[in-house]
Amino acid sequence: MSTALPERLSAEAEQAVVNMHRSMAALGAAISAVKVPVSPQMARGVQATENAWREIEAEFGFLTGVEVAGLLGSRSSNPTGYATDKRRAGKLIGVRRRNAFVYPGFQFARAEGQVLPVIPELLKVAEKYDKTPEGLTQWLCAPTGQLDGDRPVDHLIHPERVLEAAENHYGVEW
Q1: Maximum Cα–Cα distance for the chain, whole Å?
Q2: Are 158 and 166 in contact (CB under 8 A)?
Q3: Phi then psi for 109, rounded to 5 degrees?
Q4: pLDDT digits (tens, 9 = 90+) for 29-80
Q5: Where are the domains of the chain?
Q6: pLDDT for residue 3 is more than 80
Q7: 3-class SS at 23?
Q8: pTM of the full predicted structure?
């Protein structure tokens, strides 16, 4: 009986080891660039946040400003500026990722080529409580007790319910 791994599994395992070493090198360089000690809890928290962003991107996609302009039917000669103007006006969620603003795909009714009407209202709630679009995006994509353990993003077609959940979440004072 042979104990050799199937060739496909062996190649996958080899790639996983290569990726692990690359990750360790990159993380080591990042941590060494910080001039104060980094606790394991902080490192774990940063990684958990990055993992959440990657999950959001995988599920909903992040659109560029040009893609947003095309989706919304802009005829602007500056499509990136179109998305920027909408973001600055509080009509569109834009989050900074890798030194650029991107726009989470969940906020668009693609068939109609428009931003879901609840999005500007959610941005107003976030602003009222001094929360960032990044924080709002993370909240929208995480289970919440305000919606019986569901994610707010899965209820965007019920604006009243999501807005109430956002108010209850952000408006709580301890």
Answers
A1: 68
A2: no
A3: -90, 90
A4: 877 787 888 788 887 888 888 899 999 999 999 999 999 999 999 888 887 8
A5: 62-170
A6: no
A7: helix
A8: 0.80
